[in-house]
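quick one
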Amino acid sequence: MQINLTLNDTSQSWDIPVNETLLDALRRHGVFGVKQGCQTGECGACTVLLDDVPLTSCTMLAAQADGHRVTTVEALGEHPEQGWKHTEGLHPLQQAFIEIGAIQCGYCTPAQLLAAEALLRENPNPSEAEVRQALSGVLCRCSGYVRPVEAVLRAAARLRGEEPPPVIGRLEPPVNVMPLPPTPPQSAEPPVEAGPGPHTQVKVDLPKLVVAPAGETRHVGVSEPKVDAVKLAQGKPAFVADVEMRGMLIGKILHSPIAHGYIKHIDISKARALPGVHAVLTYQDVPRVIFSTAGQSHPIPSPLDFVSLDRKMHFVGDRVAAVAAETEEIAQRALGLIEVEFEELPAVLDPRDSMAPGAPVIHDEGDYVPFAECDPKRNLAAHIHMELGNVDEALKTADYVFEGEYEVPRVQQTPIEPFVCITYWDEDDRLVFRTSTQVPFHARRILAPVLGLPIKRIRVIKPRIGGGFGNKQEVMIEDICAHLTIVTKRPVKLEYTREEQFMASTSRHPMIIKMRTGVMKDGRMVANEMRVLSDTGAFGNHALTVNGNTGHKAMSLYPANKGADGQSNLRFVAEVVYTNKPTSGAYRGYGVPQGFFPVESQMERIARALGLDPLQFRLMNVVQAGEEHPMSKVFSEGREARGELIRTNAIVECARLGAELIGWEKGKQGDKETGRQGNKADLSTCLPVNLSTLRQGKGVALVMQGTAIPNLDMGAASIKMNDDGSFNLLVGATDLGTGSDTVLTQMAAEVLGCPPDDFITYSSDTDFTPFDVGAYASSTTYISGAAVVEAARKVAEQIKAVAGRMLDVPPDEIELAERQALALDGRSVTLAEVALDSLHRSGQHQIMAVGSYVSPDSPPPFGAQFADVTVDIGTGQVTVNKLVMVLDCGMIVNPAAAVGQIEGGMTQALGYAVCEEMLFDEHGRMVNPRFGDYRIFAADEMPEMQVRFVQTYEPTHPFGVKAVAEIPLDGVGPAVANAVYDATGVSPSVLPLTPERVWRALRDGK
Ligand code: FES
Ligand code: FES
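structure w/ FE2/S2 (inorganic) cluster:
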């Protein structure tokens, strides 16, 4: 049918199918600023203005736009300089989003901008609540909404002619000024032997806080705008799906409706015969190559238990068949024409049943390749045992032994951009992947044998990614997309729906955790034991490493070394079992949030039982700078553990500052004003007899993470100088919305004495950018950053050599600053002159260099997480009023980006604490696979959040940095649970704290 509409002030006449949505029609006409994240009207990514009113374009037909005005982000504003043509520039909203650091992955940004534009046109002076209300229809998984809300208020002020407040500039200097340590020790001393098990008694006298060496940095430590922010604010076609290719087919997957069984018979003839269908693939059509989807270094520390298409079904959502067709509609119809008969087997849906005698064996395939201590015959994907000291003996001698059992749920990463991949053969018969991945280099290596291609005939391009959070540290759909291209010779696009994203991608490992902790009467911890039953679901990708991390990091915060011999007595045992549920995998925090819920709940219970202040009790037992990282001696992700020294640790300062910000001392136990119950277990004191049912409480959790995987994670970068003195910075590191391209550029800019604006930064393309393991383990700023600094230093040397020749001074007397090479006598040449000279005039050569880096260290960032909650003891409703997090993440390269990371991370963790949970029926089918039922926080539901950094200077990095990205996931769950304990006297054992669960716990008194 024909429709006429006004699109961004231009008249359009479109010929459309009657059932086409406005979203699809817009994208088919090249309007890629409109994104899809669910197609069910629940995420808001597809928001447009229809006659100035924000609407989701996925839930309306294009036909309904006939005769109307449609506005998309493309109409808002554009880059001010278009060659010789000047434009009006960006809209104040776009400018404010860029300035304030409101854009992370940028996938939701066009929709947020349009929602805000509609608000400001109606209401030029909105309150914060009104802004939050206006943005509430657009879900953002990255930001925590603080910065987008601030950006809208800022733009509103500017549109009213007012001057908005300045953006976050440099952070406060470190709280404690101390000299740098003379020479940091490079390796820990050998342990002192005493009884069974390894011990950690290594202590080196180091100051806890170390300030940066003298000398102001110009670009590191400054809230520079993100290097990709301008294009993202304009909704430019930067993401995987934002391209059109001639002849591109649409791929679709038929998923298993049963949790466990075999394909008895499959008939694809009707599907193949459907006009427009180009391929239908089953296990009979694709070579069987066993692999692991885990995007990790070689050799992958997971069992090889996965094939592209199998006869066996392992969970509801497993792959039955794949089709490629001319359109999505035809592909969908083809799926419906595939006839399958299954032979169903009993399923294992509860991890407690997985290893029971006689349990159905989920992986009985003959080509299964085990890794480390796994045993598929017993449904055991990984067994982990870490032990330090003599736990049993220490528990015997402890004054008290506290036991507890805890449970954490299966939750989904839910990046707003689902999995999406495009594959095609290029002119050299090389297979190209344009894909939303965190691990392009690992993906290339993993895919090669699966597709029967050498690595050199595969190219993986990672454009902008609409969020990942570990979900995309996986080869999830690329193999199927490639099989379809191989068989059809055509470009193929495969994109998950939101339901597929929930049911057929990965999630966080759910765990059942038992703790035993030995303490002395005065609060000294002498032993700690954690035993975990973890559910890896249908496949064992990341089984060893995620769960190893649970013990490695969460148990190391309290070394339990306060006994007479000073030895750590720690034990961590995990059984990671297969079930017929969707597969678990990497999720931001990588096993550590699961560990800190029991550890920090246990700490709270012990402190209150001993009558100690929970914060003081923690600080009495926490690991210190100068100590060896306890578990680093016994675990290193399937590699040899070498032991690492903790050189910087400001957790005490973080705790003190956080306590001040949350008002820790105000209204302690039994306070009449707040109703804080403290350790009173008697709930009768707060039963609603003519009293409010609302009780307020405060909780704390101390946390630590890691920074990269030591002796394994490697990053590389190359820098090339151009004729005008600008640079190309190519990094294999994968910016998935975290801002890593920006912070890497800032480091290069610092070394080369020019603004970040002088860099064209590109990540990542396996053909052009150097190798990098990718975005995980919070490694990029530390590992890839050190590689960038190395490359930049080499380039700086070359620049100084040319400048020295031009100025006739020794190169070591040249400084680089303000885009110039400066001699001691005040003479200078610009970088542009250096570039011209080296490329065109004398001693001609290309100034460029490569740097690469791998670290023996993984310096832990530390944090103190606080929560203030109100509990309605009548309904069990937990309302989180405020979250405060104070962190030691080393030196902060970009404060605005770092704060945004922490706010976004805390918001994800808040969902883990109070509402997010994947729920399944008795057949193993997920019952809430959409945003309407699986609730993630919206802008108008957020508590107040405060983030502060206590900067330390980590001496193992050129700019003193440690990791930022994952640590905010670790503490919110336990801090909120401990606040509920504080409010009600009942300590929750199971997350999330839904009203029903809390109400039952209050009723049962536990
Ligand atoms: S794609 Fe339209 S609301 Fe999610
Ligand atoms: S910035 Fe909002 S979803 Fe990523």
